[in-house]
């Protein structure tokens, strides 16, 4: 148990009955507004208020999704996009964590690294597309670079902030107890930075999917972005919506996985 946990009073592992009931009721209630919106969308399409040239009906979208799944197009596009996000996130995540650790744990690191990183952070990374194309061509490299740039900065900022916001009293207590500098970092500073870092991870994942949507407009011949662009050329709004829904589901899934990880790692926090 780290020092940051030592002063936390024991909390009940099970939620009070009223809280448990409220949670069970909240989940179904949260579906009311999305279902109502889909029903209104279908009603507008069925009555002719919403033209299919502008937006296909939910029934048509569902049918198109089934066809894309059956002929394998959606599965192939899904696999390509997942691979792009994975490798882009791996590159950007590694860069953001390394820079965040160096800048957060070292005064010299903060002095030398933080100013240029903060300057680059203020640039809209989606605006770097022309430079990425000039530097890296029009293959997979600019797409991965765009995702990596979108991931690196949120992770860097939140990890750096989490390290710097460590309670000085905990660090001093560890020093008095005879902990070495490395032990203070491992047992006090890094655990204290975990909540903030997980926030950065959630933001980074959301930015990764946003970056991918834009990146797959760059001369893509596969992936969800290619599927959407190809459908746009033929005015297939149903296929465009299918691609957007898959993007949204992927974003929600990855965010949910991080939230699950957060609940498991931070079990000691009040819920």
TrEMBL record:
It holds the Pfam family BPD_transp_1. The chain crosses the membrane at residues 85-108, 120-138, 144-163, 239-261. Its main location: membrane. It comes from the Bacteria. It is found in: Cell membrane. GO terms for biological process: alkanesulfonate transmembrane transport. It is a multi-pass membrane protein. Keywords: Cell membrane, Membrane, Transmembrane, Transmembrane helix, Transport. Residues 74-258 form the ABC transmembrane type-1 domain. Belongs to the binding-protein-dependent transport system permease family. This is ABC transporter permease. The lineage of its organism: Bacteria, Bacillati, Actinomycetota, Actinomycetes, Pseudonocardiales.
């Amino acid at each position: 148990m780290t020092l940051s946990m030592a002063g936390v009073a024991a909390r009940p592992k099970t939620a009070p009955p009223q809280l448990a009931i409220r949670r069970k009721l909240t989940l179904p209630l949260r579906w009311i507004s999305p279902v109502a919106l889909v029903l209104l969308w279908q009603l507008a399409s069925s009555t002719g208020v919403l033209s299919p040239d502008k937006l296909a009906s939910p029934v048509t979208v569902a049918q198109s999704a089934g066809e894309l799944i059956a002929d394998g197009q959606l599965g192939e596009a899904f696999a390509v996009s997942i691979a792009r996000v994975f490798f882009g996130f791996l590159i950007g995540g590694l860069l953001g964590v390394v820079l965040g650790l160096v800048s957060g744990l070292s005064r010299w690191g903060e002095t030398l690294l933080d100013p240029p990183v903060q300057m680059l952070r203020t640039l809209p990374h989606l605006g770097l597309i022309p430079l990425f194309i000039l530097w890296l061509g029009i293959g997979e490299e600019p797409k991965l670079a765009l995702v990596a740039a979108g991931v690196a900065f949120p992770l860097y900022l939140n990890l750096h902030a989490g390290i710097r916001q460590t309670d000085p009293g905990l660090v001093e207590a560890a020093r008095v107890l005879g902990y070495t500098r490395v032990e203070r970092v491992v047992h006090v500073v890094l655990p204290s930075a975990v909540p903030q870092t997980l926030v950065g991870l959630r933001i980074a994942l959301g930015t990764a999917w946003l970056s991918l949507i834009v990146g797959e407009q760059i001369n893509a011949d596969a992936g969800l972005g290619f599927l959407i662009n190809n459908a746009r050329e033929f005015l297939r709004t149903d296929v465009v919506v299918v691609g957007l829904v898959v993007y949204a589901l992927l974003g929600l899934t990855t965010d949910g996985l991080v939230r699950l990880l957060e609940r498991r790692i931070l079990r000691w926090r009040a819920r």
